[in-house]
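Subject: Protein record for review, amino acid sequence with backbone structure tokens
Why sent: The fold of this protein is of interest and is recorded here as tokens.
Notation: Tokens come from a learned vocabulary of local backbone shapes, not from coordinates.
Attached in line: The record itself begins immediately under this heading.
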Amino acid sequence: MRVVLLGSSGWLGGYVLDELAQDREVIPVPRGTVELGVTGVGDLAGRLASLAPDAVVNCAGRVGGDALGLIGANARGPAVLCAALSAAAPRARLVHLGSAAEYGAVAGRAPLTEDAPTCPQGLYGASKLAGSLAVAGSPLDAVVLRVFNAVGPGAPPTSLPGRLVRGLREAGADGVVRTGALTAARDYVDPRDVARAVALALGRATPRVLNVAGGRAVPVRDVADGLAEAAGFRGRIEESGGGPERSAFVDWQQADVSAAGAALGWRAEVPLVQSLKDLWADDPGPAPRSAAE
């Protein structure tokens, strides 16, 4: 199987590349090579036709930036990709990475199934939802994998786990780490498990949307404490009471992952504690210092 992988130089894209390269011919398309937010349908169709893929995996997108960048990459990009793929390789399989942010606020404490109402809070979630709707509504053989909160080695420094790692490195073994509110609960999944889900989705008939998550809501405070334990941190983690606006509207999320289990035979295998240990071990920052030094 020949697979074109868009966004191969991103964090999740790198894991997907490693997974797929084990037994497939993968054509990586790093960031900056093809900008879906500005590329025309005709130009992209020509590129895809020349590559003759059996499948396309779209890991490209943005998590931050201005409105034009978010809408271009996350909403326009998938729509352009679907149109170009329909023209160039209409029988190719398309796997697109969506986001738990597409669901938004949760009524009560019920796990989210794929047919749960979508009410994204903020432009990022809204732009991701628009892109996922473009994929799910296309005539292609396509699936959206709605990835919940990914955490593991190499996590971006802009993510909460990435920021916590930086704070722990800077505080030293006995210092103080100050952070925003850690009261929300999220459903975490390791990027290696995400990559396995992508690989499985390439070769099976599936529903249009599948949740990819650990399947349990974990207090964010537990993530902070898990990283502190992995770091051998003996100091204090102090919450300022602030935090991302999204946490004020979405204080709890948990996925129902039974559909992914039925369609793919997939479930998350890497425990959160291992993801956090590997994240800390993967970060090459300076060794923790004692406050007395």
Q: What stands out?
A: Residues 286-293 have pLDDT under 50 and may be disordered.
